[in-house]
Description:
Layout: E1 4-6, H1 13-19, H2 24-30, E2 44-46, H3 47-61, H4 66-74, H5 82-86, H6 92-106, E3 110-117, E4 120-127, H7 135-154, E5 162-164, H8 173-180, E6 184-185, E7 192-196, H9 209-224, H10 231-242, H11 250-256, H12 261-270, H13 275-293, H14 298-304, H15 310-321, H16 325-331
Parallel strand pairs: 5-6
Antiparallel strand pairs: 1-2, 3-4, 4-7, 5-7
Helix pairs in contact: 4-7, 10-13, 11-12
Amino acid sequence: MSYLTRASSLHGFNEFARSLQLNPVELLREAGLPRNVLDDPDALIAFHRFARVLELAGNASANPLFGLEFGLYQGVGIFGSLLYLVRNANNVGDALADLSRYFHVHDNYGDVRVHRADGLAHLYYATEAQNLPGSRHVSELVMGVGHQLMRTLLGSRWQPMAATFQHAPAASAARYRRLLGVAPRFNSAFDAWLFDARWLDISLTDADPALYRLMQHQLDAMSSQHNTTPLPNDVQRLLRSFLPSGRVTVDCIADFMSMSPRSLQRHLAEQGTSFQTLLDETRQAMTVRYLEESDMSLMQLTDVLGYANQSAFSRAFQRWFGVSPRQWLKQQTPRV
């Protein structure tokens, strides 16, 4: 599958790079992108090239938080035409639900999710779990953009309770706090913002219903052009989103997709796979990412991947890689 994003994902890159004394044209060229890539913000570009630009810029500037700072600089401009829909929804919750529903039009590498429970709301970006160069910068850019999105929707009321990152810190916690205004938590199940769920019900007083309907019609048309994703890919996207919240069953995924578990299994079998196979593959890919990018303990990882106990996780790991989790960790090059 080809993972794509809109060129608007690099909104403001030229100006931000120059502010750090970097050559944006050279960085884009090295990542395999044309110098005029931002002339058409709606153009699709390969996601790995987008991530590569962030990695190159972070290295060239010797700034481990390049992605986070760039995301804060970009703000909502990254969303392109999708922004007009979000800003004209009835309330904050509807705006985030629309962002989740149509995000695949902007970027098919990850999914925006909003989870509400026990008076708390989580806004997070569940990404493809694969070893992608620059993925930490992507995660932190998304967190920066999310911060600016919520500030756009809520204004001065935006006072998050926490910012959580899947990976280990790349700089001091104090530096993260200066940028985000809140103490970060690392080695978490999600890259997410946590805030008071009551804010989801706040009305967007400047919303224009006519513009909202126009943008919804346009995005529905664009969405129909993207709805050719094979069913197994859709299932894996949902698994990546839901696994960190707890154990995921075929009943849960089938219900979310508005079909019976038997129908889902039958359709998957017709495409040469099964729910259990997809669950196993997704867990394996997520395991590699968590182990490479975070300092999460094996017990934490067991919970995040929805295993009943650490022994079950260790058996699966041994089957995937031929060694135990601890042996695998000893074989890896230390992170720098």
